[in-house]
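Q&A log
Question type: sequence-to-structure
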Amino acid sequence: MKLVPLESPELVQLAAEWLAQEENYRWLDFGGGRQIVTPALLKIMAQRESHFMRVYTADPDDNPVGIIGLNDVDRNFRTGTLWGVTGDKSFRSRGFATFAGSKFLTLAFEDLGLRVVNTWAVEHNPSVRLIERLNFRFVGRQRQCHCMDGAVHDRLLFDLLAEEHHEMEFEWPRRRAGRAADDGNRSTTARARCAHAATH
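Response status: OK
Response body:
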């Protein structure tokens, strides 16, 4: 997996297309009620010190999978707010977003020198599990502050200190593939047994 800066027009366009999808932007907030980010705005954000973004790719072909970033980066107080989107939905639930988050946090703490990264998720958003896997600590709740589908929802608040972060080893897709192969072998064996029983 690689973390790639948004330097090419093609990557900026692709990431903006991901962020323009309702299933993605409905969970986000870029300030002032802005949820959709255009390619032009995304390009500007990528050039500002208050934002830090990377597109993450999948092995072995380095195809872009999603985008992860920090908003409100404060070099004085050494803080930032984490967010991310899996653009290619075929890579959901395969560990890529978790590993990308872990690798990205290493950049945030070591390269940017941040002391703490915070994040939030709308209550009942499945991404809460990812946030917890990255070792973020639950620190509070903002009540009825996120509007979605004609209803208001709470946001759950989390933070992570630099000393609490430990970069993860990326093994999950390989293990998953191995298990899939094992399951396939077991299924083939089971089908053979059934066929054998049916003919005897």
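Response note: Residues 3-168 form a domain with the Aminopeptidase fold (CATH 3.40.630.30).
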